[in-house]
Design a protein that fits this description.
29% of the residues lie in helices and 16% in strands. It has 550 residues and is an alpha/beta fold. It has three domains: 341 residues, Glycosidases (TIM Barrel, Alpha-Beta Barrel), CATH 3.20.20; 61 residues, Oligo-1,6-glucosidase, Domain 2 (Oligo-1,6-glucosidase, domain 2, Alpha-Beta Complex); 76 residues, Sandwich (Immunoglobulin-like), CATH 2.60.40. Helix 7 links the parallel strand 9 and strand 10. The longest helix is centred in the C-terminal third of the chain and has 19 residues. The structure holds alpha-D-glucopyranose.
Length: 550
Amino acid sequence: MSTFHDKVIYQAYPKSFNDTSGNGVGDLKGVTEKLPYLSDLGVDMLWLNPFYPSPQNDNGYDVANYTDIDPMFGTWEDFDRLVEEAQNHKIDLMLDMVLNHTSTDHEWFQKALAGDEYYQDFYILREAQEDGNLPTNWESKFGGKAWSKFGDTDKYYLHLYDVTQADLNWRNPKVREELYKVVNFWLEKGVKGFRFDVINVIGKDEEMKDADDGVGKSHYTDTPIVHDYIQELNKETFGKYEDIITVGEMSSTTVENGVKYSNPDRDELSMIFSFHHLKVDYKDGEKWSLMPFDFIKLKSILNEWQEGMAEGDGWNALFWYNHDQPRANSRFGDVENYPFETSTMLAQTNHLLRGTPYVYQGEEIGMTNPNFDDLDDYVDIETHNAYKEMKEKGIEHEEAMEIIKEKSRDNSRTPMQWNEAEHAGFTTGEPWLKVADNFKEINTETGQTSQRIYNYYKKLIQLRKDMPIIQEGDYKALELNHSSIFAYRRDYKGQTLLVLNHFYEEESSITIPDELLGLDAKYLIGNREERTLEKEFKMGAYETVAFLLN
Ligand code: GLC
């Protein structure tokens, strides 16, 4: 059996997790302080978003120095203590490696700007086209064009994200060598996992041309050379160790590539994050729009990834939430009337699938979108760029704010709600991002529903450890076209795990196939009263239930 299929990974967003210094920003000491909480929850690995020195234009994904700690987050002593204490709690650390781009404040970029040709070749610099247009017509993922003027030269540098995030030139072997040094540096510090940021866009076309669609993704996403680079990265760094867990964040990838990235025989990564299931409420593919989520599409995407990755022996990271996504309970359920049912139903849907579940800070207590009314309460660069673009398109302020309330990445970045104290016990200072005002009801210490949700997560995490069928079982959907229930089975060594998840309020029912009804069905876990399996199985609002059949 593979070594990591029984594990669950927790993601803490250090900036918003726990502030012990009172500067309004979470810190490493704060993470250490909460290890007992994480250990009680039962997670095995802790992924921390970037805490390296950074101008923080993109909350640390604009790295100015890969091998240091931003004083805002603490010291080396704090880091060493965190590793040590985490080990005492049997929790390993996973760090975020942002190897596609550096901050323009990074020494390499600064040297390049100062005219050092060696470092100029670390980035992707091009001249304008003959007609004076930018080198290509590609768009930045954060809005606007993907090229900006390189100092006072007549060249432009590529930035697929913010203008202060300059894309690195992976075609230059020296760049790759430097980046492998970075990964090895952290391995030597005792880090056991890596989350590679937007790693499938590192291999840009050698000859850079205008894109027919005016956006350009196909010129740099999942290009064949990315697989070569990841294999080399594996071989030169974490592949030398036995027990390292890696996950690649894959922008707009395909199942076919997902298999390649994560099939163990290919020596690339342990698993990948794909995002298609989190775009089912994008109107015509546009994130900054409002639309009820398309349930059939959601199921068909999850099903496609479950089946496809299993067929090719790939491995999915399972998640609804992260620091870039609005809170899924606010998005796919009813957090006003059914907060417990919504959160636990989503959790169970995810945790019992084939793959590795990720828990993002606060989901285990049912934290929601904060619904800030004021644009100034949002800090995220993508949100502010989107607001400008919406205004330019003629969208009125009120409508733009409604969209931002649902879609902003800050929805998940508000401080962790620990207790009822001021700022939810996150900080004694002024938090860098406001706390959601429901923290008196939703918090780890006194939130009654929060505690029920937390205990449910605990059970799900323990079940995965106890049951090989959850770790290794085959997956198959039932009645994929059912309009409100996502039903699937997992099969392993003659046993079947039947998982039924109801995504809506109105009562609904599903017909259980006779072949399953003939078996001995044991109720395993559910978010309402204990149930018996029957042919016409009725489900209440946001109900989830799982049976083990022998
Ligand atoms: C990833 C990160 C996101 C960041 C982007 C650019 O998508 O998760 O937060 O803005 O990469 O580094």
